[in-house]
Amino acid sequence: MASRILACLVIAVAIATVDCNLEGDVLNSWKTQLFDPNNVLQSWDPSLVNPCTWFHVTCNSNNSVTRVDLGKAGLSGPLIPELGLLANLQYLEVFSNNISGPIPTELGNLTELVSLDLYLNELSGPIPASLGNLGSLLFMRLHGNKLTGTIPTSVINLITTGRLRILNVSYNLLSGTVHRNNSTGLRITTVVQDPKAPAM
């Protein structure tokens, strides 16, 4: 019986290690595609067991990444689709950089995400409808980019069916207007679209 328990523990540790290595691989893959003139990512060493000792990365008690804090880091380059593999990520804070390209649809897999702060970058293309999968999200700040199209209905639905409190998409190249209807008792705090758009 003791050997069976020991075998189960070894398997559990192996699975946890693989998950942590996967998260480290994802973050290292992103690092290789970023220009980092200030060496902010210098501690991101892929030879370590997991990324929990890296600066700007926070993990939970299971050594799984829950937070990436890279605001005002002087970084440029893309967001990569593999970021959608960070299953326990709660905070993706990559504001005030020069991050460019589209927002990967795979970010819609981050169902534990509470805060998505991608504002003041150079992101372009549409807001992915898959972000409507983020039912735990409280804050989505995408303002100050070059996003186009309209705000997907699935994202607007996070206001009524999810926990979303702040949705800021102002200072982009979006079309359409979001109307807020307080008669339904929505729990929304702020929806900011375009300062030139009609009042909501």
UniProtKB/TrEMBL annotation:
A Pfam family of this chain: LRRNT_2
Signal sequence range: 1-20
Domain Leucine-rich repeat-containing N-terminal plant-type positions: 21-60
One example of the protein's molecular function in GO is: kinase activity
Keywords (alphabetical) are:
Kinase, Leucine-rich repeat, Receptor, Repeat, Signal, Transferase
PANTHER family in the cross-refs: SOMATIC EMBRYOGENESIS RECEPTOR KINASE 1 (PTHR47988)
- Official protein name in the record: Somatic embryogenesis receptor kinase 1-like
Q: Which organism is it from?
A: Populus alba
